[in-house]
Structure to design on (357 residues):
């Protein structure tokens, strides 16, 4: 399959034809700029400006501004352009392989958000898979997680504690529907705080839209457009600027980023009940600290059993842990007889990545 050309003058083919590099013991190593693959002369989700960045997904702690050239999945393209602007971006389909330097590279679904990917790197007979952020639970808004065999697997551990065990997503959406319907019957809006990229769209695809109108904050609606443009089916939504009537607002489900809590933007909805959707709602007291009426346990990261199953499915004998509950996960993996270490990265430890673009 031919490589799609970036809009910028840079020719990605010159990158792909770079001469081979003498292999190192570790195909990927930690540097001050990020995780570096010398054999490909490329960084994976770097946190300092670099020439060539391989991006697992478009959350802001993994896809940052300032890199000269970006490589990501085709499904991530629209969101990345919204968040990064007119960058030099080249995209590959899932499963499409290219040679970068002396490394064979391909993207495979991570199940985290639209366009999220695991990066498979093969060099000198060794295979590394860098999973980025991922979940194994079903999600109608993105490609499902795909196990990829590897010698070395690089995993997150955001919810790497036994307490984190998610209920089926359908159960959570049923809870949201019940809460929304009760509020609508009482004549008050239902304000649900959810991260604008990934979580909000997952909720939209899962709730019963016939209960009432759905109003989205501008930060959410911009990403809704990218999802629809990428072929994801979402129910009709309104912006406040569409001027829905007061009767509609009293029956509405309002999706807003957590940063909207306590701001004047909420005044237009009059009386409302509010809630927060996050894996952190699993913790006792988290809802109280958020000062919301309800908490829905819904995460776009793997829970404890999900992390275990994904690592086991990779078949890897060596595992690096990047962020989250790193010491716990490293200790557990070591107890299972695996070689386990940590990469001290600058990726976010939050539920769904940094919220700012």
């Amino acid at each position: 399959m031919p490589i799609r050309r970036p809009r910028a003058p840079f020719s990605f083919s010159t990158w792909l034809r770079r001469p081979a590099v003498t292999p190192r013991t570790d195909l990927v190593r930690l540097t001050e700029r990020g995780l570096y693959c010398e054999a490909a002369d490329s960084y994976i989700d770097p946190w300092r400006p670099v020439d060539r960045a391989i991006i697992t997904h478009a959350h802001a702690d993994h896809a940052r501004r300032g890199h000269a050239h970006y490589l990501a999945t085709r499904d991530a393209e629209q969101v990345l352009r919204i968040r990064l602007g007119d960058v030099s971006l080249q995209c590959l389909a899932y499963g499409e392989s290219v040679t970068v330097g002396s490394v064979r590279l391909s993207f495979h679904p991570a199940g985290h958000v639209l366009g999220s990917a695991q990066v498979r790197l093969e060099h000198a007979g060794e295979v590394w898979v860098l999973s980025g952020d991922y979940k194994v639970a079903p999600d109608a808004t993105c490609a499902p997680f795909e196990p990829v065999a590897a010698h070395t697997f690089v995993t997150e551990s955001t919810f790497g504690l036994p307490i984190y065990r998610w209920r089926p997503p359908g159960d959570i959406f049923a809870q949201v529907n019940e809460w929304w319907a009760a509020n609508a019957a009482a004549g008050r809006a239902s304000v649900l705080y959810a991260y604008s990229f990934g979580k909000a769209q997952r909720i939209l695809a899962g709730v019963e839209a016939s209960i009432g109108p759905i109003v989205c904050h501008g930060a959410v609606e911009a990403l809704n457009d990218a999802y629809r443009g990428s072929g994801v089916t979402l129910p009709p939504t309104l912006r406040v600027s569409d001027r829905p009537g007061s009767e509609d607002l009293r029956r509405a489900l309002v999706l807003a980023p957590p940063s909207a809590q306590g701001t004047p933007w909420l005044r237009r909805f009059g009386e409302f009940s509010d809630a927060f959707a996050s894996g952190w709602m699993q913790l006792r007291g988290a809802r109280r600290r958020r000062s919301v009426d309800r908490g829905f346990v819904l995460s776009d990261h793997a829970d404890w059993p999900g992390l275990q199953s994904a690592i086991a499915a990779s078949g890897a004998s060596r595992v690096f842990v990047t962020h989250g509950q790193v010491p716990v996960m490293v200790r557990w993996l070591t107890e299972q007889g695996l070689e386990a270490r940590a990469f001290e990265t600058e990726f976010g430890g939050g539920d769904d990545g940094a919220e700012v673009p």
